């Protein structure tokens, strides 16, 4: 089963993330890759560099970032695992790192399953 | 959280950590069977304790430490004086090592080597293929005997026997838990890759039973391939095998019709191929090419890549595929490679040329009873308009295959050819 884990930040102290957090993130990413679970991951640049395409008032509107949300999407990771609990465990480890190594950081990870071949299989 | 929920959470951690826990213990107690028992004891302890007290911050370390304590208890309980004397030396060394290990912040650095040692030992050529498969899935995949039995459609006690027999063989032959010496590495690595690809193929082309594909085995094989690629990043064949599996697996969503029957490559809806796996497979193939000359797995990945790159069946570069099969036949001569080459030549140069190659294989002992020889001949004969002969070949293929879905496919082709 494939899971997309998105990480959103609600609050973080000013300044760059601590070096040991960055190091721990790299290490955990490597561990997840080497355990065969992590297929793809990347940090995301601030939404000020992005854009949004939406249907508003019945027409297509393109607007440049930053987006007005309180919680900025900062990274995603794609896992191949056997159970939801495994994806939750990896997501927990990533969130815990932020909590442990960057005092004042607050945020959340969503763990979402991707549809796979089984979802389109005929009813048994 | 219900008890069932928390058990699933513990199992998720087990799945992530078990191989590394067993690998670390195997180094310390120098016995794979014992290491696995100790790790299982630690799992039982976790199932009791974590639902009550929560999952510890570093669950892998908790499991390893708990298992180590069990080991010390076991050594202490061994009661005869003689045994104690014999054990004392190793026991003292052990405790020394463990005390150091617990102080050592960089304990993680050993884990890669421990895992590799475990992989090479589980795939040791002294073991029969089925023993290597079962032991690898058990030790490296964290699969239970019941799960392995379900995946291979054999009774659970059979898998249990294979695992215990394999462990006993390793112990009887005093197979050391170590990395192979450089001179033996190519052969030993080949044995590891063979095990992983056998697991993949058992899932991809289920040799028996009613399912055409058992994706969980494919997933497990790819996961093992990724683990190995992380541990041995400089080995081209490791990337070659992983690329081969990923490109083949990318077709799984398109390989089965709604009624469960197989859809062959030319008839597949290519928009359903898993693009992430295609991309990863092509990247992996490039990595293998950058590291040196392609070996057998790399060449097969290169062949699979020809299909992956073709947006339509007509766009397939069959001439390149035929050339790659020629290289493969040179590297690993086999009638099955030759049969595949016949298919490619049949596409690149015309069915009569393919048929000439396939006909040359009719006396091959190794292909006697192999359903795909008559199936390939049937296809080539049908394209030459020799319908009666084609139908007879497809019927022969249907009589030979053990897979029910494949049998239906061959019978359908026989009917289409007018037999």
Topology:
The complex is a heterodimer of chains A (124) and B (419).
Chain A: E1 2-11, H1 19-34, E2 38-43, E3 51-56, E4 59-64, E5 72-80, H2 84-101, E6 106-113
Helix pairs in contact in A: 1-2
Chain B: H1 3-29, H2 32-53, H3 59-77, H4 81-103, H5 108-122, H6 129-139, H7 145-152, H8 156-172, H9 185-204, H10 215-231, H11 236-249, H12 275-291, H13 296-309, H14 318-331, H15 335-348, H16 351-359, H17 372-383, H18 387-400, H19 404-416
Helix pairs in contact in B: 1-2, 1-3, 1-5, 2-3, 3-4, 6-8, 6-9, 7-8, 9-10, 9-11, 10-11, 11-12, 11-13, 12-13, 13-14, 14-15, 15-16, 16-17, 17-18, 18-19
Task: Please characterize this protein's 3D structure.
The complex is a heterodimer of chains A (124) and B (419). Chain A is α+β, with helices and mostly antiparallel strands and 124 residues long. Chain A has a single domain (2-116), classed as Dimeric alpha+beta barrel (Alpha-Beta Plaits). Chain A has helices at residues 19-34, 84-101; strands at 2-11, 38-43, 51-56, 59-64, 72-80, 106-113. Chain A is flat and about 45 Å long. Chain B has 419 residues and is mostly helical. Chain B has 3 domains: 1-107; 206-316, no CATH class; 342-419, Alpha Horseshoe (Serine Threonine Protein Phosphatase 5, Tetratricopeptide repeat). In chain B, helix 2 packs across helix 3. Chain B starts with a helix and ends with a helix. The chains are: A alpha+beta (124), B mainly alpha (419). The A-B interface holds A 30, 33-37, 39-40, 78, 80-83, 85-86, 88-90, 96, 116-118, 120-122 and B 8-9, 11-13, 15-16, 57, 112, 215-216, 219, 222-227, 230-231, 252-253, 256, 258-260, 276, 280.
